[in-house]
Design goal:
Largest sheet of chain B: 6 strands, mixed
Oligomer: heterodimer
Order of helices and strands of chain B: EEEHEHEHHHHEHEHEEH
CATH class of chain B: Alpha Beta
Helix content of chain A: over 70%
Shape of chain A: globular
Number of domains of chain A: 2
Number of strands of chain A: 0
CATH superfamily of chain B: P-loop containing nucleotide triphosphate hydrolases
Number of helices of chain B: 9
CATH topology of chain B: Rossmann fold
Strand order of the largest sheet of chain B: 5-6-7-3-8-9
Structural class of chain A: mainly alpha
Chain lengths: 263, 257
């Protein structure tokens, strides 16, 4: 407990030092506010435009969460298919690599063309970009079961169903969580990137990415910073939520899920 | 009373096993194990000890020759066989209790019977205090106890044990050996026990089969003429030493060829 308090204090101290450095740079180099606003100005922008900031945050959160949920559902299903045989994996694996390597920015215009601007298109981008790590990690978990455990189940004449639900799936849960942890971060990035292309300008429908685009075109740099701050908070919240769930479900039996020690 | 009373528990006749076109892992194995006999299989690494167990369990198929368990094919006899692996092979997401109940659960035993069996086994193997613990909270010896309890839960007539205590320290190993003898005396199962340790084999067995490698074949057999009810004290007797010396000598022979 004490250890943890010290860790938090250290992090806060670094944060304070960065703020001081930021302010010093402004004073020493006389940077104009439209290039780099002061920390204080950013805080004022957060306060002044809090409702619209919150609204943008909520929209991006919805898109990221929707995309992530879809990639978990689809990813687990695809992994179940992959786990059926080495043949299936060999045949289909290159396409998951494709999923990982196609730059999302390159296909965003296509998605925009097919689905039109708005929340569904952005959710789709978040889904596409966060799918690969779920598939890869879950498949790994499903197929890396100890051979003797499979033998044990066979000795009790276990059915395919029992092998799947009582052995392979529970065994894959820690790996699934690793996948979700990675995917949660990139789902948020995907949603914001998606909004840069397909975010909607309709009233009350612009998320963080759209607002960032808008703020930069208007040289509202203080608000731009506030939006970046909000995006960071969103990414962190996602990560912490996933890590909490991981801890909650795994800490009793799995080594990796224990609270990370302060080094 | 028992219509299969005259049938031996295991009959292995002329069994050869090779994987692909490689040289034979086992060649021309003939072995008969009587009901309620405890036999140990001992031999240098790579002589196919574990393969014999897998063949008896039906987890591997012989290339030629036949295997009968209680007069049936191994696959058909599975209900009466339990396998104890070298690692405890517990499901880490299940408590000790749920691990012990795994076999009964897979065989769709009714809840009531499951609870009763588990409670009795927790008592029998001395695991009552850790019933709700998870495997990672247990020592190696404790995990092995859970693994043995799980094997016993389905009331096997035949226990196949593949170097179950190889990873344990000597103290835990000796204690579990005594435990195994006690459990067997109470439940009268047949056992085929694979081990590297001559002392362990002598302490536990009615009969010891020594295998030689390349290809795996039966090199010698020893009957262990020690009293049926054995205590740890027997390890210090001259008779015990004499058998250990003889088996060890034969075991060294298999390496010299």
């Amino acid at each position: 407990m004490k250890q943890r308090a010290i860790t938090v204090l250290n992090a806060l101290a670094v944060f304070a030092a960065l703020l001081v450095l930021w302010q010093l740079i402004l004073w020493v180099f006389h940077v104009p506010p439209f290039m780099l606003p002061s920390p204080w100005a950013v805080m004022r922008a957060v306060g002044a435009r809090f409702p619209s900031l919150l609204n943008a945050l909520a929209i991006t959160a919805e898109e990221s969460a929707g995309g992530l949920a879809a990639s978990i559902a689809v990813g687990v299903l695809v992994a179940l298919v992959f786990a059926q045989s080495r043949w299936v994996r060999k045949m289909l694996y290159p396409y998951t690599l494709l999923l990982q390597t196609v730059p999302i920015i390159a296909i965003a215009p296509l998605i925009l063309m097919w689905m039109g601007a708005g929340i569904p298109a952005v959710t789709f981008v978040a889904f596409i970009i966060s799918l690969a790590p779920i598939i890869a990690n879950t498949t790994q978990g499903l197929i890396s079961v100890d051979e003797n455990l499979v033998h044990l189940f066979l000795m009790h004449n276990a059915s395919r169903r029992q092998l799947l639900f009582k052995l392979r799936l529970p065994h894959a849960v820690p790996d699934l969580f690793v996948g979700i942890r990675i995917a949660s971060g990139i789902a948020v990035i995907g949603a914001i990137t998606g909004e840069l292309f397909a975010g909607s300008g309709r009233v009350g429908e612009g998320g963080l990415g759209y607002s960032i685009l808008y703020a930069s075109s208007q040289l509202q740099t203080d608000y731009l910073f506030a939006l970046v701050l909000a995006a960071t908070v969103l990414g962190f919240s996602f990560l912490f939520l996933v890590m909490f769930l991981e801890w909650y479900f795994l800490h009793r039996w799995h080594e990796s899920a224990r609270a990370p020690e302060a080094e | 009373m028992n219509d299969t009373a005259g049938v031996p528990e295991i009959e292995i006749a002329g069994v050869t096993k090779r994987y692909g076109n490689a040289h034979a892992v086992l060649e021309s194995i003939d072995l008969v194990v009587a009901k309620q006999e405890f036999i140990s299989i001992i031999g240098p690494s790579g002589c196919g000890k574990s393969t014999i167990l897998k063949l008896i369990a039906g987890l591997a198929i012989p290339t030629s020759g036949t295997i009968r368990v209680d007069g049936m094919t191994p696959q058909n006899a599975r209900e009466t066989i339990s396998f104890v692996f070298q690692d405890a092979t517990l499901l880490p997401w299940r408590t000790v209790k749920a691990n012990i109940g795994l076999g009964l659960e897979l065989e769709h035993a009714p809840n009531e019977r499951r609870e009763k069996e588990i409670a009795a086994l927790l008592e029998l193997v001395g695991l009552k205090n850790v019933a709700k613990s998870y495997p990672r909270e247990l020592s190696g010896g404790m995990k092995m106890r859970v693994s043995i309890a799980r094997a016993l839960a389905t009331n096997p007539r035949l226990m196949l044990l593949d170097e179950p205590f190889a990873a344990l320290d000597e103290m835990s190993r000796d204690r579990l050996n005594e435990e195994i003898l006690r459990l067997r005396a109470e439940q009268n199962w047949t056992a085929v026990f694979v081990t590297h340790s001559v002392a362990e084999a002598v302490f536990l067995s009615d009969r010891i089969v020594v295998l030689a490698p390349n290809p795996g074949r039966i090199h010698a057999e020893f009957r262990v003429d020690l009293p049926a009810s054995r205590t740890s004290a027997i390890r210090n007797s001259p008779e015990f030493d004499a058998i250990v010396t003889r088996v060890s000598h034969t075991l060294r022979e298999t390496l010299r060829q």
